[in-house]
Write a sequence for this structure.
C-alpha cells in the first residue's frame, strides 16, 4: 500500500515537472490565448508573490541594471531581452516595433498621441524617431504603470519629448486642445484596452484631433483583436486602411498593425 502511494506520488511529481518545464513552455509561443493565460494569470501573480514586486518594477530594475543610461535603443533592446528571456509583457515588442518604426519615419510627425503607455516601451520607440521639436503625448490610467513609464523614459533620456498624461483616455482626449495647445495629431498610436479603440477614435474625430492626413496606427487588431474598430476604419469612406501582418509580441501567434489614413 505504502509502495503504491509512493509510486503514485513519484509519477505525479514527474508528470507535473514535465508539464511545467517542457509542455507549457513549448505550447506558450504558439497559442495566443495560452500566452496571456500562462503569463498574465498564472506566472505574473506567482512572481509578484515570490519576489514581492510587480512585473513593471522588475522590468525597470532590469533596465537599470542592464541598459546604457541615456541610450533609448539600448533601453528598448534590454526590455525586449527581459520579455523574451524572463517575463512576457504587453509591449508592442520588437517585431511589430520595426513596422511601427517604419510607419513613424514615413510620416515624420511633429505631434504624436499614444493611447496606452504601460511601461513606456512604445513611447521610447516612437519618441526616438521624432524630428527636433516633435512631441509625444501618451495616456495611461494605471498610476503604478505611469510611474514606472516615467522612470524608464527618464532613464532613456527622452523625458523632454514625452509627456505622460495620467487618467482615462475618455477624460483626457477632450482636454488635449486647450490644455496642451494641440491643433491636430499627425499620428495616433492606439494600444490601450481593445474595446476603447472605436469609441476613442470617434471621440478624437469629434474633438477635431483627427484631420486630413492624420495616421492612425492600431496595435493588436488580430490578437486579441478589435473587430468593431477594423470594421469601422476599413469601411469608412473617410479612411484608407492597410493591414501589416506580424506576430503578437514575443510569441508566434499572428497579430498585426492597422494603418488608417484620414482622408478628410
Ligand atoms: C497594451 S498596454 C500598452 C503597451 C504600450 N503601448 C507599449 O507597446 O509599450 C495597454 C495600456 O493601456 C492602459 N489603458 C487601457 N485602457 C485605457 C484607457 N481607457 N485610458 C488610459 N489608459 C488605458 C492599460 O493600463 C495598459 O497599461
Ligand atoms: Mg499592443
Amino acid at each position: 500500500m505504502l509502495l503504491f502511494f509512493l509510486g503514485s506520488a513519484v509519477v505525479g511529481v514527474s508528470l507535473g515537472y514535465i508539464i511545467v518545464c517542457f509542455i507549457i513552455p513549448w505550447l506558450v509561443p504558439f497559442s495566443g490565448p495560452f500566452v496571456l493565460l500562462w503569463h498574465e494569470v498564472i506566472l505574473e501573480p506567482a512572481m509578484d508573490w515570490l519576489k514581492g514586486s510587480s512585473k513593471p518594477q522588475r522590468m525597470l530594475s532590469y533596465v537599470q541594471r542592464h541598459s546604457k543610461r541615456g541610450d533609448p535603443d539600448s533601453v528598448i533592446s534590454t526590455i525586449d531581452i527581459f520579455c523574451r528571456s524572463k517575463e512576457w509583457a504587453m509591449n508592442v515588442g520588437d517585431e511589430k516595433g520595426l513596422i511601427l518604426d517604419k510607419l513613424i519615419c514615413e510620416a515624420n510627425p511633429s505631434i504624436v498621441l499614444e493611447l496606452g503607455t504601460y511601461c513606456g516601451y512604445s513611447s521610447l520607440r516612437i519618441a526616438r524617431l521624432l524630428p527636433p521639436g516633435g512631441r509625444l503625448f501618451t495616456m495611461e490610467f494605471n498610476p503604478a504603470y505611469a510611474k514606472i513609464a516615467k522612470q524608464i523614459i527618464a532613464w532613456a533620456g527622452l523625458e523632454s519629448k514625452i509627456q505622460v498624461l495620467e487618467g482615462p483616455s475618455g477624460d483626457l482626449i477632450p482636454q488635449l486642445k486647450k490644455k496642451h495647445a494641440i491643433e491636430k495629431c499627425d499620428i495616433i498610436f492606439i494600444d490601450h484596452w481593445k474595446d476603447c479603440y472605436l469609441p476613442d477614435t470617434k471621440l478624437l474625430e469629434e474633438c477635431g484631433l483627427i484631420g486630413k492626413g492624420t495616421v492612425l496606427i492600431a496595435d493588436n487588431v488580430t490578437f486579441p483583436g478589435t473587430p468593431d474598430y477594423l470594421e469601422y476604419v476599413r469601411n469608412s469612406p473617410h479612411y484608407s486602411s492597410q493591414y501589416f501582418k506580424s506576430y503578437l509580441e514575443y510569441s508566434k501567434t499572428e497579430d498585426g498593425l492597422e494603418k488608417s489614413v484620414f482622408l478628410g
Observations:
- The two ends are 79 Å apart (CA to CA).
- Residues 90, 92, 191, 219-220 surround magnesium ion (ligand 2) (CB under 6 Å).
- Residues 2-27 form the longest helix (26 residues).
- Strands lie at 111-115, 135-140, 162-166, 187-190, 215-218, 239-247, 254-262.
